[in-house]
Every structure is written in structure tokens, then in C-alpha cells.
Amino acid sequence: MHELAVTEEIIKVVTDASKGRRIREIVLVIGNLSSFIDESIQFYFDKLTESTPLEGAKLSFKRIPVKLRCYRCREEFTPDEEYICPYCKSIGGDIIEGREFYIESIEVEDEDRDSKEYT
Amino acid sequence: MKIEIVKNILEANDQVALLNRETFNNLNVFTVNVMASPGAGKTSLILEAIPRLNSSVAVIEGDVASSIDSEKVARFNIPVVQINTGGNCHLDASMIREAIKKLSLEGIRYLFIENIGNLICPASFDLGEHIRIVISSVPEGDDKPYKYPGLFSTVDAVILNKIDLLPYVDFNIEYFKNGITAINKKAKIFPVSCKTDEGIDSWVEWLKGENRYK
């Protein structure tokens, strides 16, 4: 249920960034080590944006798998359940990807709809 | 038209956490974020630490409801504030900001923040603490680090509580430890029992060593 507060934050940030233009799409980047669930953000987003200018904007989720750099051989790998390095078979590594949780970009309607140069 | 934003969604929380940390630093209050699932022994471990620290301690108790834990802590005659989140699954930095207004932190050397019993959400929310620990208990099973890597990968220490139950439970300590060190090499691991006091002293000694404001 902690997605409620973060969804409110997402709405605030994208509303500021859109400067009044209609938002078509919001791209979120979420690492698999972060504790946030796409469906739950989508659920709160739909509820919170009902009858607002944001209603109907598409949420796109880019999921980032966990990536480790092996403690021993320093190769990068996406771990299995027991974190065994596929290169040297030792266990574990430094986390280099998987903690992401940010708004990457938004797609807004052009101010001048006839102009093609922004599309 | 595409607008690049690249903005951390938790930035608002992180900024308040920064303020909290500044407050703790200015007052020389060493702050510990205590996380665990419900019933792992967060309150018990804090109560074991209080008399051993030989120092001034305060506690912020986070719970969805009730003041059961804060009443236990208050018996030690130390400052305690209860936060009831009313259903929210974690503490955030602004709840701590409010709570420390109600605590007299002057002269306090250790502040324990007992987070909501949950191994998921608390990992994402910086409270302004200096260190974070997670308590895992033997009856919960040895697979918890594998199931909740998001949290176990962010902590400075893992306290394995209720080791007095090891003879009665299938719990492979090596497997448990491997699941932690695989993603968090720096985490110290302390097997303890709040029931028999085994291991408590070495955990408390470590905590004293971590405190930069002794």
C-alpha cells in the first residue's frame, strides 16, 4: 500500500514538468530490488487521476533486472536464486543495477498540433 | 513531444531524511533504524540493548496500531514516542521529523527507530538514520535473505534472533548467511537469543563501536 504516497509524488512531478500540456505517457524505471509493484502504482494512478487532466495517460514501466558484479572474477551477471556467478561459480557480487526507481520521461501533446517538427 | 525528467521518485522523502540526519548529527544522536517482520523481536532486542549501552537512549516506536510496545519501553524510564501509521506499511522521513519534535533529544546518545513489521517497504525509505539493521528470527526460516533481497542488501547488520529454537527447527545457518553475503558483503551477522541472552553482548559491543558520538 506504500504505492499510494509514491503515486501522488509521481503525479506531482509530471504535472509540474508538463507545464499545462496534456500528458500522453509517463515512463517509470523500476529496479527489481526496489519494493514497488507496477500493478499497484497503476491502480492508485487510475484512482487518483479520475476526472483530472491526467486521466487516461499511459503509464509505461521499464523493469530493470538485478545485475551483480562478481566478488571474485568481477564479471557482470544477472543472478539466479542463489546468486551463483555463471563464469566462476562463486557466490555473490556487488549490486550494480536493480535499485532504480525514477521517472524517466513524459510524452506530452505538442503545443502546436499542426507542427511536425517535435514529433 | 518527449520531455526527459529522470527524477528520483523518493526525492521528497530523501530530502526530509537529510534534514533528520542533520538534526541527529548536530545533537550527537546515533540513530538506528530497526527493521524486521512482525514478531521477529524488534522490541525485545531494543529492550536487551538499553541496560547494556550504559548511555542515554530514546526510542521511536512505529506500529500500525496500539501503544503496547511504547509502554514496554517506557518502563525503562526512557523517552519514547509512539507513531501509529493507521495502516501504512512503513515509516517515512516526515513521520520521524514529527516524532522528534515530541522527543527531547538533548543529551541522548542512541535513538532506536523501530520500524513497522515488514520486510518490503521499509527498505525504500531513508529515515535519516546512521545505520540500519534487520532482525530475522529462526522460526521465519533460513530463506528470508533470498526472498527479501531488497531489504537485506541495504543493512549494516543482520541479527538472527531466537537461536535457542535451532534444535527444534530446520534452519541452515550457512544457507542463511550465504544469502546475505551474496548481495551484501559488509553486513555483520549476529546470531542471538533474547530469551537466553546468548550473543546479545557481542551485538551491543558492535553497536557501541559503530556509534561515532560516544
Class from helix and strand fractions of chain B: alpha/beta
Q: Structural class of the helix and strand makeup of chain A?
A: alpha+beta
Q: Major β-sheet of chain B, in short? A: 7 strands, parallel
Number of domains of chain B: 1
Major β-sheet of chain A, in short? 3 strands, mixed
Relevant CATH superfamily of chain B: P-loop containing nucleotide triphosphate hydrolases
Listing every helix as H and every strand as E from the N terminus to the C terminus, the arrangement of chain A reads: HEHEEEEE
**Total number of strands of chain B:** 8
Largest interface: A-B, 41 and 32 residues
Low-confidence segments of chain B, ≥5 residues, pLDDT <50? none
Query: What percentage of residues of chain A falls in helices of 4 or more residues?
Result: 10-25%
**Portion in beta strands of chain B:** 15-25%
Oligomer: heterodimer
Top-tier CATH class of the domain at 3-65 and 97-108 in chain A: Alpha Beta
Query: In angstroms, what separates the terminal alpha carbons of chain A?
Result: 37 Å
Strand content of chain A: 25-35%
Outline the low-pLDDT stretches of chain A: 114-119
Strand order of the largest sheet of chain B: 4-3-5-2-6-7-8
Number of strands of chain A: 6
Q: What's the CATH architecture name of the domain at 3-65 and 97-108 in chain A?
A: 2-Layer Sandwich
